[in-house]
Specification:
The structure is a single chain. This protein is mostly helical. The chain has one domain. Helix content is 64%, strand content 2%. The chain is built from seven helices and two strands; from the N terminus they run βααααβααα. A two-stranded antiparallel ribbon has the order 1-2. α3 runs antiparallel to α4. It is globular, with a radius of gyration of 20 Å.
Length: 200
């Protein structure tokens, strides 16, 4: 009679660390960038939900609260740069948390490609944000008030849709489908696990 076996890689950390990390970045970013307590509560509830149900899109709701904080306050180059960094970092960590099952473990070295991509994109994004702040005059008046929240909503929605399409079905469903497809090919045809080295 065979019992269950568990393989733990040296230096690995529990997968929930990613979910908690995403929630901390989102909530911390909202507290720093959004001065309105109502949005603190919205982001807090969304962050807690994302820890237990990462596919609920709670993390991205929290990111939109960060963007709203920038939109609803006076323009500031420093706050804009911080928002670009925190929203991007939260998106990357939440994407990892989306892909990794709750009970699995992950080695930090697997995340290095994603971290390198984050740094490269940040170098470009921060430069573009700084140039835009210097080159584009601020748009004032009620006729332009709708542009900023619309842009933030579109950006958040497009990111969420792209993430859902790129990751596909739930990891458990993917494992089950691979098991069914590879049942005739033997145990070696199935390699369960999460891929966090892809797009993020």
């Amino acid at each position: 009679m065979r019992g269950p076996h568990e393989l733990t890689a040296a230096g690995s950390v529990p997968a929930p660390v990613l979910r908690i990390g995403a929630a901390v970045v989102v909530l911390g970013g909202v507290l720093l960038l959004n001065p309105y307590p109502m949005w603190w509560w919205v982001a807090g509830a969304a962050s807690v939900l994302s820890v237990f149900l990462p596919r609920s899109m709670g993390s991205w709701l929290g990111m939109s609260c960060m963007a709203l904080g920038v939109v609803l306050t006076e323009p500031s180059a420093g706050r804009t740069a911080l928002a670009v960094l925190l929203i991007h970092a939260a998106h990357v960590i939440a994407s990892w948390a989306w892909a990794v099952p709750w009970r699995s473990r992950i080695r930090p070295s697997v995340l290095l490609p994603g971290i390198r991509r984050l740094l490269v994109i940040q170098a470009v994004a921060q430069a573009v944000a700084a140039l835009m702040a210097l080159a584009v005059p601020p748009l004032h008046g009620p006729g332009f008030a709708w542009l900023a929240p619309l842009g933030a909503a579109v950006l958040t929605g497009v990111s969420a849709i792209a993430l859902r399409v790129s990751l596909g079905p739930d990891p458990g469903q993917r494992t089950a489908s691979r098991t069914a497809a590879g049942s005739d090919a033997g145990p070696s045809a199935v390699a369960p696990g999460a891929n966090v080295g892809g797009r993020s």
